[in-house]
Amino acid sequence: MDILLRTEQIRSKLKAEKDYKENPVDISLPVIGPFNGGGEIRVIILGQDPTVRNAASRLHITKTLNLDKSNAIRSYVNRICQSLGISIENIYATNVFKYFYTRPPSNTMHVLNSHLPENLKLLEEELYGFEKLPVISLGEPVLQLLTNTTQKVRMHWGYNKKTKKTNGSFSFVKAQDNNLMRDLYPFPHQPSLRKVFYLETMERYLQFVKQNKLLIC
User: Are 138 and 45 in contact (CB under 8 A)?
Assistant: First the structure.
């Protein structure tokens, strides 16, 4: 399957039939393909879309999450890999939406919801060969899009409102409870690691993922 060609077709269709004035689809930039580590794929990482706030920097994005370059997000993914006993060579990363919007769509989620069915179908086909692998979703918008809810990442990390710490009751979104029909392990966006709760809890949640999916090399 030619993912880039299929994405271009979907983008053109959405631009013609379902575009929104408050945040149009940007057809001036190329669509962004997945990152494949090149080794035995052990984990899928799922992002939202490639639209970063700095419009000029979008020209330099060539792979999902910019994982082909040294940066903060790659360091974040490397940390995840290290805790799971794998390397970045064992990662396949892709976005739900593989093209740019005029603005980062965090404040126009209705646009993404409207554009989700076509992109979700492509994503399901893209991941067809990875049925038994864990899927890590990055950021609450991805989690909310795929579950049709407003749930927070921290609820799956056992967040206790009184103590602002984890109670150790970790969970994931089961396949039957999300639109992708795959087990999802919610993680925050990389900038959210500045929050004390995620900093203190990340290693414990990663061990939960590892034990639950038996990710032992």
Answer: yes
What is the distance of C-alpha 130 from the center of its chain? 16
Domains of the chain with CATH codes: 3-213 (3.40.470.10)
Closest alpha carbon to 44 in 138, 141, 117, 181: 138
Q: What is the pLDDT along the chain (217 residues), one digit of tens a residue?
A: 699 999 999 999 999 999 999 999 999 999 999 999 999 999 999 999 999 999 999 999 999 999 999 999 999 999 999 999 999 999 999 999 999 999 999 889 999 999 999 999 999 999 998 988 999 999 999 999 999 999 999 999 999 999 999 999 999 999 999 999 999 999 999 999 999 999 999 999 999 999 987 554 4
Phi, psi of 184 (to 5 degrees): -115, 135
